[in-house]
Amino acid sequence: MEVDDYDLKILGLLQDNGRLTNQELSELVGLSPSQCSRRRINLENSQLILGYHARLAPRALQQEVIAMIEIKLLNHGQNNTATFLAFIDQDKAVVEAFKTTGEADYLLKCTVSNLDTLNDLVNRIFTTQAISHIKTTVVLERLKEHGTTITKF
């Protein structure tokens, strides 16, 4: 799918507010509601829009501790990698996962209720027996998330 300036504007507006109606989009973009609807459907079908969801504060889920966990695998064999990927897929504390370059193979963003629960998570990661090194960093304050500044100075 080729993306034009109208599509880019629709994507940007929906990224800021996924609840916009086609009528509201049409007024902001300068197209008819039916054209906006067709374009939105095409963007969804082309998987340029991956979904719509509510962004919740960690305290809403009683998961106020955020940790960034760097993972280095023992090796990159198929079984080892599959075991680790299956773990991050099923463990609800892992909210985002990235394959990275540099010292770590993966970076996990995790949310848990307290430090004891974080310790349990780290122990569960080690039980996959796929890990050679873990480095855990606890987030003290969220300053910017999803492109939005949280704390004003």
TrEMBL record:
<dbReference type="InterPro" id="IPR000485">
    <property type="entry name" value="AsnC-type_HTH_dom"/>
</dbReference>
<dbReference type="InterPro" id="IPR019888">
    <property type="entry name" value="Tscrpt_reg_AsnC-like"/>
</dbReference>
<feature type="domain" description="HTH asnC-type">
    <location>
        <begin position="3"/>
        <end position="79"/>
    </location>
</feature>
<dbReference type="Pfam" id="PF01037">
    <property type="entry name" value="AsnC_trans_reg"/>
</dbReference>
<protein>
    <submittedName>
        <fullName>Lrp/AsnC family transcriptional regulator</fullName>
    </submittedName>
</protein>
<dbReference type="Pfam" id="PF13412">
    <property type="entry name" value="HTH_24"/>
</dbReference>
<dbReference type="InterPro" id="IPR011008">
    <property type="entry name" value="Dimeric_a/b-barrel"/>
</dbReference>
<keyword id="KW-0805">Transcription regulation</keyword>
<dbReference type="InterPro" id="IPR019887">
    <property type="entry name" value="Tscrpt_reg_AsnC/Lrp_C"/>
</dbReference>
<keyword id="KW-0804">Transcription</keyword>
<keyword id="KW-0238">DNA-binding</keyword>
<dbReference type="InterPro" id="IPR036388">
    <property type="entry name" value="WH-like_DNA-bd_sf"/>
</dbReference>
<dbReference type="InterPro" id="IPR036390">
    <property type="entry name" value="WH_DNA-bd_sf"/>
</dbReference>
